[in-house]
Specification:
9 helices
Protein backbone atom coordinates (compact mmCIF):
# COMPACT_ATOMS: atom_id res chain seq x y z
CA UNK A 1 0.00 0.00 0.00
CA UNK A 2 1.16 3.52 -0.76
CA UNK A 3 -1.02 5.11 1.88
CA UNK A 4 -3.82 7.62 1.39
CA UNK A 5 -5.96 4.81 -0.02
CA UNK A 6 -3.60 4.17 -2.95
CA UNK A 7 -1.92 0.87 -3.84
CA UNK A 8 1.06 -0.37 -5.82
CA UNK A 9 2.07 -3.73 -7.20
CA UNK A 10 4.01 -5.53 -4.41
CA UNK A 11 6.68 -6.89 -6.76
CA UNK A 12 7.25 -3.46 -8.29
CA UNK A 13 7.52 -1.82 -4.87
CA UNK A 14 10.02 -4.49 -3.75
CA UNK A 15 12.12 -3.88 -6.88
CA UNK A 16 12.11 -0.10 -6.38
CA UNK A 17 13.09 -0.57 -2.73
CA UNK A 18 16.01 -2.83 -3.65
CA UNK A 19 17.16 -0.45 -6.38
CA UNK A 20 17.74 2.28 -3.79
CA UNK A 21 20.85 0.61 -2.33
CA UNK A 22 22.14 -0.51 -5.72
CA UNK A 23 21.56 2.88 -7.31
CA UNK A 24 23.23 4.72 -4.42
CA UNK A 25 26.29 2.48 -4.77
CA UNK A 26 26.47 3.18 -8.50
CA UNK A 27 26.24 6.93 -7.91
CA UNK A 28 29.24 6.95 -5.54
CA UNK A 29 31.34 4.16 -7.08
CA UNK A 30 33.98 4.80 -9.75
CA UNK A 31 33.34 3.64 -13.33
CA UNK A 32 29.59 3.32 -12.70
CA UNK A 33 29.38 6.86 -11.30
CA UNK A 34 31.23 8.55 -14.16
CA UNK A 35 29.47 11.59 -15.57
CA UNK A 36 29.90 10.02 -19.01
CA UNK A 37 27.60 7.12 -18.02
CA UNK A 38 24.00 8.07 -18.92
CA UNK A 39 21.42 8.07 -16.15
CA UNK A 40 19.27 5.63 -18.11
CA UNK A 41 22.12 3.10 -18.12
CA UNK A 42 22.55 3.38 -14.35
CA UNK A 43 18.82 2.91 -13.77
CA UNK A 44 18.74 -0.11 -16.10
CA UNK A 45 21.74 -1.69 -14.36
CA UNK A 46 20.24 -1.02 -10.93
CA UNK A 47 16.97 -2.64 -12.06
CA UNK A 48 18.76 -5.69 -13.49
CA UNK A 49 20.77 -6.21 -10.31
CA UNK A 50 17.61 -5.57 -8.27
CA UNK A 51 15.91 -8.47 -10.06
CA UNK A 52 18.96 -10.62 -9.26
CA UNK A 53 18.77 -9.63 -5.58
CA UNK A 54 15.06 -10.44 -5.39
CA UNK A 55 15.76 -13.85 -6.89
CA UNK A 56 18.47 -14.63 -4.33
CA UNK A 57 17.05 -13.04 -1.18
CA UNK A 58 13.63 -12.80 0.39
CA UNK A 59 13.28 -9.02 0.57
CA UNK A 60 10.27 -7.66 2.43
CA UNK A 61 9.82 -3.94 1.77
CA UNK A 62 7.95 -1.68 4.19
CA UNK A 63 4.19 -2.11 3.90
CA UNK A 64 3.53 1.59 3.28
CA UNK A 65 5.48 4.07 1.22
CA UNK A 66 4.35 7.30 2.87
CA UNK A 67 5.39 6.48 6.42
CA UNK A 68 8.16 7.64 8.73
CA UNK A 69 9.51 4.11 9.14
CA UNK A 70 9.69 3.75 5.35
CA UNK A 71 11.65 6.99 4.99
CA UNK A 72 14.11 5.80 7.64
CA UNK A 73 14.49 2.45 5.86
CA UNK A 74 15.14 4.23 2.55
CA UNK A 75 17.74 6.46 4.21
CA UNK A 76 19.46 3.40 5.65
CA UNK A 77 19.51 1.69 2.26
CA UNK A 78 20.97 4.79 0.61
CA UNK A 79 23.60 5.10 3.35
CA UNK A 80 24.81 1.53 2.81
CA UNK A 81 24.96 1.96 -0.97
CA UNK A 82 26.82 5.27 -0.75
CA UNK A 83 29.30 3.77 1.73
CA UNK A 84 30.06 0.84 -0.59
CA UNK A 85 30.78 3.12 -3.52
CA UNK A 86 32.56 5.79 -1.50
CA UNK A 87 35.23 3.39 -0.24
CA UNK A 88 36.27 2.56 -3.80
CA UNK A 89 36.17 6.24 -4.68
CA UNK A 90 38.70 6.88 -1.88
CA UNK A 91 41.08 4.32 -3.39
CA UNK A 92 40.68 5.93 -6.82
CA UNK A 93 41.81 9.28 -5.38
CA UNK A 94 45.35 7.99 -4.71
CA UNK A 95 46.63 8.46 -8.31
CA UNK A 96 45.41 12.06 -8.30
CA UNK A 97 47.45 12.77 -5.19
CA UNK A 98 50.50 11.13 -6.75
CA UNK A 99 49.93 13.15 -9.92
CA UNK A 100 49.93 16.38 -7.91
CA UNK A 101 53.29 15.47 -6.34
CA UNK A 102 54.92 14.32 -9.58
CA UNK A 103 53.54 17.19 -11.66
CA UNK A 104 54.72 19.78 -9.15
CA UNK A 105 58.21 18.28 -9.10
CA UNK A 106 58.36 18.21 -12.90
CA UNK A 107 57.22 21.81 -13.16
CA UNK A 108 53.97 21.02 -15.00
CA UNK A 109 51.60 21.36 -12.08
CA UNK A 110 49.66 23.87 -14.20
CA UNK A 111 48.92 21.21 -16.86
CA UNK A 112 45.31 20.20 -16.17
CA UNK A 113 42.64 18.40 -18.12
CA UNK A 114 38.99 17.51 -17.61
CA UNK A 115 38.52 14.32 -15.63
CA UNK A 116 35.88 12.14 -17.39
CA UNK A 117 35.08 10.48 -14.06
CA UNK A 118 34.00 13.64 -12.26
CA UNK A 119 33.80 16.28 -14.97
CA UNK A 120 36.21 18.53 -13.05
CA UNK A 121 39.73 19.67 -13.87
CA UNK A 122 42.58 17.50 -12.56
CA UNK A 123 46.36 17.22 -13.15
CA UNK A 124 47.30 15.61 -16.45
CA UNK A 125 49.67 13.09 -14.83
CA UNK A 126 47.14 12.25 -12.16
CA UNK A 127 44.53 11.75 -14.87
CA UNK A 128 46.88 9.41 -16.71
CA UNK A 129 47.47 7.35 -13.55
CA UNK A 130 43.74 7.37 -12.82
CA UNK A 131 42.99 5.95 -16.28
CA UNK A 132 45.64 3.29 -15.70
CA UNK A 133 44.01 2.39 -12.37
CA UNK A 134 40.59 2.19 -14.04
CA UNK A 135 41.88 -0.16 -16.74
CA UNK A 136 43.54 -2.40 -14.15
CA UNK A 137 40.34 -2.31 -12.07
CA UNK A 138 38.34 -3.54 -15.04
CA UNK A 139 41.00 -6.09 -16.05
CA UNK A 140 40.67 -7.97 -12.74
CA UNK A 141 36.84 -7.78 -12.89
CA UNK A 142 36.66 -5.28 -10.07
CA UNK A 143 33.29 -4.05 -11.31
CA UNK A 144 31.93 -7.60 -11.01
CA UNK A 145 33.39 -7.91 -7.51
CA UNK A 146 31.60 -4.68 -6.58
CA UNK A 147 28.30 -6.03 -7.89
CA UNK A 148 28.85 -9.27 -5.98
CA UNK A 149 29.57 -7.30 -2.81
CA UNK A 150 26.37 -5.30 -3.23
CA UNK A 151 24.35 -8.50 -3.63
CA UNK A 152 26.01 -10.08 -0.57
CA UNK A 153 25.31 -6.96 1.46
CA UNK A 154 21.65 -7.96 1.62
CA UNK A 155 22.69 -10.99 3.66
CA UNK A 156 24.98 -9.17 6.09
CA UNK A 157 22.90 -5.96 6.21
CA UNK A 158 19.29 -6.91 5.44
CA UNK A 159 16.69 -4.17 4.93
CA UNK A 160 15.38 -3.02 8.27
CA UNK A 161 18.74 -3.62 9.96
CA UNK A 162 20.94 -1.81 7.47
CA UNK A 163 22.15 1.08 9.62
CA UNK A 164 25.94 1.12 9.73
CA UNK A 165 27.45 0.67 13.16
CA UNK A 166 29.75 3.37 14.60
CA UNK A 167 32.71 1.03 14.12
CA UNK A 168 31.95 0.70 10.41
CA UNK A 169 31.71 4.47 10.00
CA UNK A 170 35.03 4.79 11.83
CA UNK A 171 36.64 2.29 9.45
CA UNK A 172 35.43 4.35 6.46
CA UNK A 173 36.95 7.50 7.96
CA UNK A 174 40.25 5.74 8.72
CA UNK A 175 40.39 4.31 5.20
CA UNK A 176 40.31 7.89 3.94
CA UNK A 177 43.90 8.22 5.15
CA UNK A 178 44.88 5.34 2.89
CA UNK A 179 44.36 7.53 -0.18
CA UNK A 180 47.06 9.94 1.02
CA UNK A 181 49.38 7.10 2.04
CA UNK A 182 48.93 5.30 -1.29
CA UNK A 183 49.48 8.52 -3.22
CA UNK A 184 52.69 9.22 -1.31
CA UNK A 185 53.93 5.67 -1.90
CA UNK A 186 53.08 5.84 -5.60
CA UNK A 187 55.07 9.01 -6.25
CA UNK A 188 58.60 8.20 -4.84
CA UNK A 189 59.95 6.25 -7.89
CA UNK A 190 59.71 9.43 -9.95
CA UNK A 191 59.91 11.98 -7.15
CA UNK A 192 63.27 10.68 -5.89
CA UNK A 193 64.97 11.19 -9.25
CA UNK A 194 63.45 14.65 -9.57
CA UNK A 195 64.69 15.49 -6.08
CA UNK A 196 68.20 14.41 -7.06
CA UNK A 197 67.92 16.58 -10.19
CA UNK A 198 66.87 19.58 -8.10
CA UNK A 199 69.89 19.05 -5.84
CA UNK A 200 72.19 18.99 -8.88
CA UNK A 201 70.60 22.12 -10.30
CA UNK A 202 70.95 23.80 -6.94
CA UNK A 203 74.66 23.01 -6.79
CA UNK A 204 75.10 24.30 -10.35
CA UNK A 205 73.34 27.53 -9.43
CA UNK A 206 75.74 28.03 -6.54
CA UNK A 207 78.79 27.41 -8.67
CA UNK A 208 77.59 29.45 -11.66
CA UNK A 209 75.22 32.21 -10.42
CA UNK A 210 75.03 33.83 -13.87
CA UNK A 211 73.55 30.67 -15.40
CA UNK A 212 69.86 30.93 -16.37
CA UNK A 213 68.29 28.05 -14.43
CA UNK A 214 64.90 28.43 -16.08
CA UNK A 215 66.35 27.58 -19.47
CA UNK A 216 68.04 24.47 -18.04
CA UNK A 217 66.04 23.33 -15.03
CA UNK A 218 62.57 23.07 -16.58
CA UNK A 219 63.59 21.09 -19.71
CA UNK A 220 65.78 18.84 -17.55
CA UNK A 221 62.92 18.26 -15.10
CA UNK A 222 60.55 17.36 -17.94
CA UNK A 223 63.04 15.01 -19.57
CA UNK A 224 64.00 13.28 -16.32
CA UNK A 225 60.36 13.05 -15.24
CA UNK A 226 59.22 11.41 -18.48
CA UNK A 227 62.15 8.97 -18.49
CA UNK A 228 61.62 8.16 -14.80
CA UNK A 229 57.90 7.49 -15.32
CA UNK A 230 58.65 5.21 -18.28
CA UNK A 231 61.19 3.29 -16.21
CA UNK A 232 58.92 3.14 -13.15
CA UNK A 233 55.79 1.94 -14.97
CA UNK A 234 56.19 -1.73 -13.90
CA UNK A 235 56.61 -0.84 -10.23
CA UNK A 236 53.85 1.75 -10.34
CA UNK A 237 51.52 -0.69 -12.09
CA UNK A 238 52.16 -3.33 -9.42
CA UNK A 239 51.38 -0.87 -6.65
CA UNK A 240 48.26 0.35 -8.44
CA UNK A 241 47.08 -3.27 -8.40
CA UNK A 242 47.66 -3.25 -4.64
CA UNK A 243 45.53 -0.10 -4.36
CA UNK A 244 42.71 -1.77 -6.32
CA UNK A 245 42.81 -4.88 -4.15
CA UNK A 246 42.90 -2.83 -0.95
CA UNK A 247 39.85 -0.87 -2.07
CA UNK A 248 37.89 -4.01 -2.95
CA UNK A 249 38.94 -5.67 0.31
CA UNK A 250 37.82 -2.62 2.32
CA UNK A 251 34.47 -2.71 0.52
CA UNK A 252 34.10 -6.41 1.24
CA UNK A 253 35.07 -6.02 4.90
CA UNK A 254 32.45 -3.30 5.34
CA UNK A 255 29.78 -5.82 4.37
CA UNK A 256 31.17 -9.09 5.72
CA UNK A 257 33.28 -7.72 8.59
Amino acid sequence: MLGFGLSIEPQLWALVFVMIRVGAAFIAAPVFGNVSVPLQVRVALAGAIGVLVLGMHNITPPPQVFAVSTFLAIAAEALVGLALGFILQIAFAAPLIAGELIGGSMGIGFANMVDPNTGRSSPAIGQFLSILLTLLFLSIDGHLVLVETIVKSYTALPPGAAWLAPGQLRDIALFGGYAFLAGLLLAPPVGFLLLCLNLVVGMISRSAPALNLFSIGLPASLAVGVIAMAAAFPAMGDYIMVIVREGLEATRSLVIG
